[in-house]
């Protein structure tokens, strides 16, 4: 542990505020202690951002924006390319820190850093593709087109479960668009944010760039509220719970700012009687127990055709009995710990409600008291889709099994929750697959066929509908959210015709 912390510049006490290349530290500020969920021990402390330090970060961001927005987009892409190269150098220690501070297994920690590298590569190409449209004017000797301009400082609020990757989805795209970035990482994983900021600071320093292109603040809810209420920040991208998203959305909307909200998921897989069951089982297990069920795209519900229900249930129970739970840095581990004690208690409360509503816990759910840290056995429950507890997302490895007869019934169950992030169907029947992807099928932002709910690629826009928030991050044309659209009309003639044929003689 000491080796990879030292490589990343993490000390026993760490400044949690950065204006870009410079870290600010007020020794009288409150401290956040980072604990590893591996065994509950202390890793290091972080000084929270004070209001004065926050103002310094905002000032640096605004000043840098004046320079950064005038830097040609391909040159901005070159800086992001260098960040991607630097992340490659630090992939192993940063992946270990993600695993140690958050609790996901090491392979997933490495995968998260690779996702950062991939989005850097994507953003480099994007820096030469910030296209606008041209349009034919109804007026003679007129030309119309649209162009896209940077917004300004972009605020990013990220969650503990993906402490580095989701930040990069936003930050690297915003950067090539000409925006500056202010990041508030999760108070549960502050060291990951500091490590990434130090890596980026190296690139800024090597290129003699302004301080505030990438800034960092650290703190609890109050610190985030400074950003959401700040009119100087035109866009807030926030990842987290639905209640958090409502608060952020209301605060930013009150000042007519913009938001990208990526909130809760209650993701389901429909398993048809025509499914390839071997492939289905693999996808279900990865989606349900990976990251100990703490992904926004984790598989929460299995909607299974009655003809294959018993086989799916029995095979999953057998696999769940043999899942290796333990230290996430151990290469043999498949499931690490939950993030903290509250997460364990929330899981136990959910399982209790399952029983109270008439469902049953088929296996798992036990708290592993003999292990240091916050370890539980992933659980499988038989339920009805209308149960109140099934309608809510529990951020833990609980998999709900629901039986269906017809595809219309299955789609009704699938869409009958308030969240709409990721979805999947396993079937070899083309009619079922196409129906699931049609306007009468999945109502989620992500819909897959013969692929699980987890593991989205960076090339597609990521986000969901309904209470998931409606925002989009990462690939496709999600870049447009970080810019402002401007429609331009140029009259190159010697007359002044009006649109719609209006006559107005003076």
TrEMBL record:
EC number of the protein: 1.2.1.3
InterPro entries: Ald_DH/histidinol_DH, Ald_DH_C, Ald_DH_CS_GLU, Ald_DH_N, Aldehyde_DH_dom, ALDH7A1-like
A GO molecular-function descriptor: aldehyde dehydrogenase (NAD+) activity
PROSITE patterns reported in the protein's UniProt record: ALDEHYDE_DEHYDR_GLU (PS00687)
Enzyme class, broadest EC rank: oxidoreductase
Keywords assigned by UniProt, alphabetized: NAD, Oxidoreductase
Pfam families noted in UniProt: Aldedh (PF00171)
Residues forming the catalytic site: 262
Ranges where the Aldehyde dehydrogenase domain occurs: 28-487
Keyword Cell inner membrane: no
Top-level taxon: Bacteria
Subunit annotation: Homotetramer.
Family, as annotated: Belongs to the aldehyde dehydrogenase family.
The name this protein goes by in its record: aldehyde dehydrogenase (NAD(+))
Organism of derivation: Rhodohalobacter mucosus
